[in-house]
Design brief:
heterodimer, A: Rossmann fold, 5-stranded parallel sheet, 18 strands, B: 3 helices
Chain lengths: ~450, ~130
């Protein structure tokens, strides 16, 4: 029997030493009792130094001080599986890990301490990044079919040097797309200049784009080169082109046709070889039809056209985009937010995103303000997302809710009529208690004839 | 000499990046002449560095600290003694008695890499 036990213990030790997961055990005083080979490798701490020390001095996880999984296990005497966190190894590097904890019990069921297993997720994180990169183009990420089609043809369009028109709702990433086109083109080493045409009055827009000569107007003390000159052989991105005036459209048309422009106050024309990418969130065909956008300019810029779908039409991208923004903000703010909780993701999936990807990025940033570390929960999201009722419900959700209520009311009326106005029978058929039925009748203001069907039958 | 120590109860906080309490000490000769406890957010570097500057801190003593954080703090002119563990009062006492920090090194910390074994207090300090 002793031999069997010895053999079993030896086998356990061999198994512990051969697995790639780090394993250590602690006693009730949080002193490390055992520490396997993988734990040595991941933490960078030799076993002989680890044994007998407090676990937090060896493990060095961001959870140690606050939300210690092992502490929860010891307190509640139950196991916890796979919590994402990080440790700091002896080379001062953050190592992403997954942690599982269990109570350590002897044969009699007595708790001797706790056991923690942890897995180095560095490789997983790197692979995840590579997979994400395959769904990325420039700063845009998407795995939706529509966007993948755009990603596929974008490099060819970028190389073509043609004028590009991008249309899409506000916040869909038109600027990022213009930048991606520039970065994939032969002009990538030249400047990329962006201007929002809708934000400036005509005269200012013209002086910004074409520049001016000294004395062109009061206050013009010296020559100022415009953005066309600044862009040189690069790319100029004209955002919100649909909001420009007729007069400006004429001037822009001339630049596109003649490849030259005239700074304000100048008698000479300047040649330009700048590529133009225009974008709008308006329906330009409609604007051409109603005469507020020049048809000839429309055809000049509408050589290659991309339509960026709104986020509500590609919700399959939400997890990828959330991950992308968390990674981006972790990098900028030097933080370690691991993910969005399931509840928070469910709230996002139910949202309509009128502000599209920009709104999503702002939501994640809001989460970063309220959540210092770990998982962004629904309590870290803006209030308008958490409150799923009333005016804060998105238009499509409200539409769905209204129709659901309408269908429920119709269904109740139909069932009651079918049951000969017998409320109890109708409630049974609808699978609800009669008091629930009465509450719903009141809620939907359904008026029924006075006598109950049951009382009619009893009188017969 | 003004020192900041990240603390967790009566011990040095195990991980700087997850610490929340800072013990500020003003050491004059062999005595601690002033003590102050401040709550801070280590991830908000700008405000943390501003606090160190405001208090005139010259040395930060803490537990495990990632490379980026070490660089940020050191770039602001504050010396960092990281990868230290143990009871805060024992560490302060050792510091006042001009002992080096090697006895407080975290397991796995190699001199020349983490706390670098260079924080032995010399006569000219303090």
């Amino acid at each position: 029997m002793d031999k069997k036990k010895q053999f079993s213990e030896a086998a356990n030790e061999i198994i512990l030493e051969s697995i790639s997961d780090g394993v250590f055990t602690v006693d009730h005083n949080w002193r490390i009792m055992t520490f396997n080979r993988a734990a040595e490798q991941i933490t960078g701490t030799p076993r002989e130094e680890a044994i007998g020390r407090f676990c937090w001095e060896v493990f060095r996880s961001n959870m140690c001080e606050g939300d210690c999984a092992l502490k929860r296990t010891m307190k509640e005497n139950k196991s916890f599986v796979s919590t994402s966190t990080y440790i700091i190894n002896n080379r001062q590097k953050r190592v992403p890990i997954g942690v599982s904890t269990s109570p350590l019990q002897n044969e009699k069921g007595e708790v001797l301490g706790g056991v923690e297993t942890f897995r180095d997720r560095t490789l997983v994180e790197e692979l995840r990044r590579e997979i994400t990169a395959s769904y990325a183009l420039g700063d845009m990420v998407s795995r939706s079919v529509v966007m993948q089609k755009i990603f596929n043809i974008l490099p060819q369009v970028a190389e073509s040097d043609s004028t590009v028109l991008i249309d899409g709702e506000t916040g869909t990433g038109k600027g990022l797309m213009a930048s991606a086109i520039h970065n994939h083109s032969g002009r990538k080493d030249e400047p990329f200049v962006a201007i929002n045409c809708g934000a400036l009055p005509d005269s200012l827009l013209e002086s910004e784009l074409f520049g001016y000569k000294a004395g062109a107007f009061t206050g013009a003390d010296k020559d100022k080169p415009g953005l066309f000159q600044a862009a040189g052989r690069g790319t100029i991105f004209l955002d919100e082109i649909g909001d420009t005036s007729a007069a400006f459209q004429v001037r822009l048309l001339r630049v596109l046709e003649d490849k030259e422009f005239q700074p304000l106050g100048s008698v000479e024309k300047c040649k330009t070889d700048t590529r133009i990418i225009a974008a709008t969130n308006l329906d330009l065909e409609e604007k051409v039809a109603d005469g507020s956008f020049r048809q000839d300019l429309f055809y000049r810029i509408n050589i290659v056209r991309f339509r960026l779908p709104p986020l509500r039409e590609r919700k399959e991208d939400l997890p990828l985009l959330v991950e992308h923004f968390i990674e981006k903000l972790n990098h900028i703010k030097e933080r370690y937010i691991t993910r969005l909780s399931k509840e928070a993701m469910a709230l996002l999936l139910a949202h309509d995103f009128p502000g599209n990807i920009r709104e999503l990025e702002n939501i994640i940033e809001h989460g970063f303000v309220l959540c210092q570390e770990g998982e962004i929960g629904k309590e870290h999201l803006p209030a308008y997302l958490q409150d799923g009722s009333g005016a804060n419900v998105s238009p499509s959700s409200r539409y769905l809710l209204t129709n659901l209520h309408k269908s429920e009311a119709d269904c109740i009326v139909e069932t009651i009529v079918r049951c000969g106005y017998n409320r109890l029978a109708a409630a049974k058929e609808l699978g609800m208690h009669k008091s629930t039925l009465f509450r719903k009748l009141k809620k939907y203001r359904i008026e029924l004839p006075g006598p109950d069907g049951r009382s009619n039958r009893s009188r017969k | 000499m003004k020192i900041a120590i990240t603390v967790w109860g009566n011990r040095i906080s195990p991980v700087f990046d997850a610490a929340s309490t800072l013990l500020l000490l003003d050491v004059d000769g062999n005595d601690v002449v002033d003590r102050e406890v401040r709550v801070f957010q280590p991830n908000r570097y700008e405000s943390f560095l501003a606090l160190l500057k405001e208090k005139g801190i010259e040395l930060l003593i803490c537990g495990a600290m990632c490379e980026t954080a070490v660089r940020r703090v050191e770039a602001s002119g504050v010396e960092v003694a990281s990868f230290l563990a143990g009871e805060v009062e024992a560490l302060i006492e050792g510091y006042l008695k001009k002992r080096d920090f090697s006895e407080f090194s975290m397991p796995g910390c190699r001199h020349g890499r983490c706390c670098r074994g260079r924080y032995k207090r010399v006569e000219s300090q303090g």
